[in-house]
Amino acid sequence: MAHAFVNVWLKSEILDPQGKAVSQALNRQGLTSVQEVRQGKRFRIDFSGQISKADLERVAKEVLSNPVIEDFEIEIID
Q1: What gap in Å lies between CA 16 and CA 2, rounded to an integer?
Q2: Tell me: the pLDDT tens digits for 43-61?
Q3: How far apart are alpha carbons 56 and 45 in whole angstroms?
Q4: The domain that contains 53 carries what CATH number?
Q5: Residue 40 CB: number of other CB atoms within 10 A?
Q6: What is the pLDDT of residues 17-31, one digit of tens each?
Q7: What is the extent of the structural domain holding 30?
Q8: For 15-33, b where at least 16 C-beta lie within 10 A, e where not — what string?
Q9: In sequence order, what are the beta bridge partners of 72?
């Protein structure tokens, strides 16, 4: 069985209060080299047979993300 990962995160111009809070917490923990954290979500899609990247992109745009405020990337693992 193969699977694909679809990673979704807020576009850089969109405020990310959760990412900001995590970034500040990491700095308080002594990780002062952390510049920015962006929160996101990760989907694992298992499939048998073949699935095209175009089909995954369509699903990512129409179902898994809000393209107005989110970007995504797809990784297919055979």
Answers
A1: 33
A2: 999 999 889 999 999 999 9
A3: 9
A4: 3.30.1280.10
A5: 17
A6: 999 999 999 999 999
A7: 2-77
A8: ebeebeebbeeeeeeeeee
A9: 8
